Amino acid sequence: MQPTDPLIPLRFSFLALHRQLEALGAWALHQDDPTGALNRNQAQLDAQQVALWDLLLPQLKAADNPMALLGLVMLQLGLRQTGRQLRQLGLMLTSEKIIKPVRKRLPQVFVPLQHLLTALEAGLERHLTGHELANALNQLAPPIAHLHAILDKRIKSGQNTRLLLQHMHLLWQLERLDEPLIQAIEGLMSWQLGSPQRIEAARLLGELAAQLQTPLKLTPIPHTRSGALVHHLQGAQAILKQGDARKLSGEHRNLKRWQARWPQLVPQVLAFENHGDQATLMLAQAQGQTLAHWLLQPNTRLFEAALKALLDELATLWQHGQNTPAAPPRHMAQLRQRIKAVWQVHPEFHTQTQQIAG
Description:
The protein is α+β, with helices and mostly antiparallel strands.
């Protein structure tokens, strides 16, 4: 019988991953061949991916907010890829010689991984903060670091360097589990909150919530044009932006520059975290109403007063902020910075070099 609840394929996927981990644990403890269990359960993960998509496709077409449902798809994709990497890990373990100290300590990696999967599955029934999930993910790091220490010690002593380098590749495979697991975590968070989520922001929120000693809740701000995910942070009166690290780093620098000269005109930067190609920027929420708010009010007097205040402030900024020497407009440099975004909107412009007027 075809399931009607989209959570059912996910539960079967969690079960398949637990069985894969049990098979790997049995190999580490008793050298039982895990290949059959890994392959069977990977086939189960593939089948559940299809089942979930079949269930969600009609709902996605009719959904007012498809992001929540897409979060379930992200979660399933992360689980499926985790299974694939576990199967690849099993192939490496059974095809290569694994030194006993590493083999005996591999279950110490599998245990926190099982705990993380259990936490993710629990998130289907109750709300889990991203900080809780990020902490569960972080528990994978210490046992992997312990394995690194074992290999580093042996490499320094000159013991069978080629074999030890193969073991380093094995540890790299373990570390790569972070990628699909993060996708699964972000998928669960997106499903719970109904908007795209990133784990870097979850870590930052956890630290801030601990400092403020109050629960924090993200509410998406729709229709923003910044190219970043923008949320209102209830409980801290702040705005959280998540997106491209290069772009947000530039915004962070500019805000700092403005704060040094006109602190009353720009929001205070509460936190900034850079994580590879992604970054998170937290700003204090400005008080008051926007010009657009007054524009839509029936009383034009208030709008005119707001517009006059804005124009007066702009005139002051222009008089005190302009530089005496002329500044080049740098049109081509600005276009070069934005050319990839232009190509995304107008792919027909992405052509070979052309000449104008001969």
